Amino acid sequence: DIQMTQSPSTLSASVGDRVTITCRASQSISSWLAWYQQKPGKAPKLLIYKASSLESGVPSRFSGSGSGTEFTLTISSLQPDDFATYFCQQYNSYSLTFGGGTKVEIK
Amino acid sequence: QVTLRESGPALVKPTQTLTLTCTFSGFSLSTSGMCVSWIRQPPGKALECLARIDWDDDKYYSTSLKTRLTISKDTSKNQVVLTMTNMDPVDTATYYCARSKDSNALDYWGQGTLVTVSS
Q1: Is the pLDDT reported for residue B103 higher than 80?
Q2: How many CA atoms lie less than 13 Å away from A78 in the CB half-sphere?
Q3: Do A43 and B46 touch (CB under 8 A)?
Q4: Do A96 and B107 touch (CB under 8 A)?
Q5: How much of chain B exceeds pLDDT 70, in percent?
Q6: Which of A6, A90, A94, A103 to mutate to test the interface with B (most CBs of B within 10 A)?
Q7: CA–CA separation, B23 and A77 (whole Å)
């Protein structure tokens, strides 16, 4: 199975900060990567698909980049609603795998 | 409007078989490209994809759990069923079903159902 490694595991930031989360794949996944946001007690919500495509209805402060094995999720100006846990997921292979998650906390 | 909802027992005993049902609306699993996956999340931990079933009845399973899992669909009822045998306390988790199209990202998720494995 393809392993997905996210960093950092926890991130402390303030409202208005620019935040970047990294995801690395154990082998090339082309651009078959998604990012999800999850709040406590809720299901994950799709933010980004195909590495850099913004899901409909997602604010434009979220952006994704990368290809191959290195990917990033950027929040250009952190808002109060953005404090949550973020997961990356590869869908290059039928065996879907997720990263370990990055919790974005209030500084 | 696409919705998915998981249902099943909240508590199962070790060694028992778990049966979960995903009932969905707003799309059909007989439509070309549609897929439904099951994903779980132990408390405070990461997500793990368990199985997927496609519109053409192709099925895919987690490498580590495939001997314990069976996924099936009832297109007429808009349901996908997952069974997991020989349940263990480490299988305690919230179980989600989710949709994807053309093997892409999971764009709609159910609310999840917490399953606790305990004697």
Answers
A1: no
A2: 20
A3: no
A4: no
A5: 100
A6: A94
A7: 38
